[in-house]
Amino acid sequence: PALVDRINHFKELGKNNQKGEISKERFHKATALLKLDVLKLDLSMYRYKNVLTALENAKRISSYPPEAWFYLGEAYRQRGSQGDNELAVKAYREAITKLPEFAPAYRALAVHHLKKMQYQDSENYFAKYLNCEPNAQDRAYVLKYINELNNKADSP
Q1: Could you give the CA distance from residue 152 to residue 141 in angstroms, rounded to a whole number?
Q2: Of the candidates 129, 98, 95, 135, the residue with the CA atom closest to the CA atom of residue 114
Q3: I need a labelling partner for 47 at 20 to 30 A (CA). Which of 75, 76, 78, 138 fits?
Q4: pTM for this predicted structure
């Protein structure tokens, strides 16, 4: 409708004293996917500061779906300041605690342990990743990593 029609419509609604619904839970549920998409977009453009601003506050992150903990970890990883590696791991683990079937957090932990040359832990997390995401696009690469990690474990 035209702007004037909308204004008149809202004035009419106000006269009838009709009240809209107020539901914090329903709002969060309706905007959950959008919030996650914004986090993904920010990280894809290396705007980790936006993600950190949104999620570092305990009260704010509680209004996001549990996957947000993974994105907080990714923001710490991208920033790469002193202590961020530990904060990233903590966030990834929180994501797994809150949402045990969330595959990307397992993959992130697998890569973390691989870089630290903690091969057994890396192999375990890669296996959990594939267990949660059996049709992962990077399945062939992950299987190759698991095979190589298995060979490292077998060699002296």
Answers
A1: 17
A2: 129
A3: 138
A4: 0.82
Radius of gyration of the chain (CA): 22
Q: Give the sign of the dihedral formed by CA 144, CA 146, CA 148, CA 154.
A: negative
Phi-psi region of 3 (alpha: psi -120 to 50; beta: other; left: phi over 0): alpha
Q: Which amino acid would we find at residue 27?
A: F
What is the spatial distance between Cα 108 and Cα 126, in angstroms, rounded to a whole number? 9
85 by Cβ neighbours in 10 Å (0-12 / 13-18 / 19+) ranks as middle
User: What tokens were used for 64?
Assistant: 């996001």
- Of 77, 82, 109, which is closest to residue 94 (Cα–Cα)? 109
Calculate the alpha carbon distances from 134 to 32, 67, 98 in Å: 25, 19, 21
- pLDDT in tens for each of the 156 residues of the chain? 588 888 888 787 777 665 667 788 888 888 999 999 999 999 999 999 999 999 999 999 999 999 999 999 999 999 999 999 999 999 999 999 999 999 999 999 999 999 999 999 999 999 999 999 999 999 999 999 999 998 876 665
- Residue the block writes with tokens 């914090």: 24
